[in-house]
Here is the input.
Amino acid sequence: MRKKILLAVLFLPMFVCAQWQYLGNPNFIDGNITFRSMDVHQGTPYIAFNDLSVMKFDGMNWTNVGSPEFISNVSDEDEGGIYIKIHPNGEPHIAFINSNTGGGNPVVMKFNGTDWVNLNSNIINESDWFAFDIDQQGNLYMAYAVDDLSVINIAMYNGVYWEVLESIIDPEVVEGDGFSLKISTNNIVYLIRSFYLGGGYDQLRLYKLQDQSWQVLSDYSCQECFLPEELRNTFAVGESPYLVFPIDVNNKYETLEVLEYNQETNAWDNLDFPTLQELEWPFSISVNNNGTPYVLYTDESQCGDDYSTVYKLNNGSWELVGNPCFQPVSDLSSALVFDNGIPYSLSEESEASVMWLPSKSASNTEEIESATKNGPKLITNLFGQETTITKNTVLFYLYEGGFVEKRIIFD
Here is the structure.
C-alpha cells in the first residue's frame, strides 16, 4: 500500500481568535440539577451531578459512567457541594456529604470500571462542610468541618483507610462560614476559610500544610465580599494561591479584584483586573497547567445578558481568551477546568452544557506531521483519543490567531 500525505496550511489573520465550541448537545441534560462539578483527563471531560449521576463525553455523545442516579439527594452547595476529580491513573473519584444517612457524613467513591466503590468506611463524623482534592502524585485529601465549622479535620487516603492529619482549630473562630481545599502544581496543600468579623466585614485566612502541620500564612478582610459556597470557585492555586471577589461601588458590584499570594511578603498582591460596569454572579478564578490565572465573569454591559467571558493574565496584562459572551449562565457557577492547557467551561444553567476552546500549538501540529510520515494507522485527535486515519481524513488543529489544516490521503 502506498501512502501520500498532502499538507495544506492556512493561516488566518491574527485578529481572528479561537472560538469557544460546544462539546456534544448544548443542553444534554435538564431538570432540577442545582450543583455540578467537572474534571477533564486526557481529553475526556467528566461531570458529576447532585442527583447523583456521573457522565463523560466520549468524543461524540455524553454517556453515563456507571449506573445513573446511584445515590440520590446528596450534597448541596451550602455544605460544600459535590466534587469530581480524576486520579492521575485515570480513575474518576467523586466526593460529597451523604445527607441520606441522616448524619451528613463525608463520602468519597471511585469508579473501578464497572461500579462506584466507597472509600471511606472509617469516616463517620457528621460534617457541616466538605472539600476534596487529589494531588499530582495521586494522593487523596478531604477536609470536613464539625462544631459549626470551628474545627476543620483533614484526612489523607493511604490506599486502605483515611489517616486523619492535624486539625485546624482557631480559638477566635467561634463559627466559620465555609472553606476550600486546593493543591498546588508542586503538591502543596492549601486551605482557605472564611468567617465573619462583624461590622459587615468578612475575614479570609490562608493555611498551608507543611510537615503534616498547618501554618497560618495570611489574613485578608473585605466588606461583605464573599459567599461561602463560592469559595471553591473564587479561590485557586497554581504555583501560588489566587483570590477573586467583587468590589462594591455605589451599592453595586462593578468590578472584580484579583489577588495573588506573595510567598516572600506573606501578603496578597493586587493584579489590577480591568474595570467592569455591570458585574453579575457568577465569577470564578482558575489556573492552567502552566500556572497562568484565568478569570471567568459575567458583565451585562458587555453582553446584554448573563453570558460568560474569560480573561487570562499574560506578562502582567489581562487579555481576552476566545470570543466574549460565549456561554449563558445562571447564579451558580463552575470554574474553568484545564487539560493539557485547553480550557473547558461547565455552564450552570437549568440545562447543562460544556464548552471548550480547542487551542493547539504549532509544536503539537509538527509532532502530528512527524508521526504521520512514519505511517501509523492510529493518531491522537483533538480530544486526546486515538482515532483511525481514513482516506481523505482532514484534521484541524486550532490555536489562538488561526488554524492549521492537515489533509492525510491514503490510496
Residues 364-410 form one domain. The CA atoms of residues 192 and 206 lie 5 Å apart. Helices lie at 231-234, 300-303, 362-373.
